[in-house]
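Data card: per-record layout.
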Amino acid sequence: MADTVEFELVSPSRLLKSEPVEMVVVPGAEGDVGILPNHSPLICTVRPGVIKVMESGKVSEEIFVAGGFCEVSPERCTVLTEEAILVNDLNRQDAEERLRQAKEKVASATEHEIEEARKHLTLAEEMMAAIEYVERGR
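The structure for this 138-residue chain is written out next.
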């Protein structure tokens, strides 16, 4: 039995990460999904949030993702996302501006634009939550 699972993080332009890990926790649309070696096959949507990479029983890396899709096999966990940023690299001023713009989009959205505007708002709110999580000391 393998003691690691290959974790891949992919954006439309390139492979961002590919490494064996002990465990990865993905923010699935229905709740967080913990992926260990020999996990059952799974495909799920990923909500905006933080992927946690585990090594030696603790979180070794945290990556904010803007949502996407996750495919899991017994040996691999692949996350496809439009945007990925290390949690420690998130910038409060940029996130606050993004949140302000998203709120404006929701306030001025037409009936046909409202769903997309709300997606941008949710993404900005989750980014702010990740920043506040880091500032509180995890």
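Known properties of this structure: The longest helix spans residues 114-135. The longest strand covers residues 58-72.

See the next section for split statistics.
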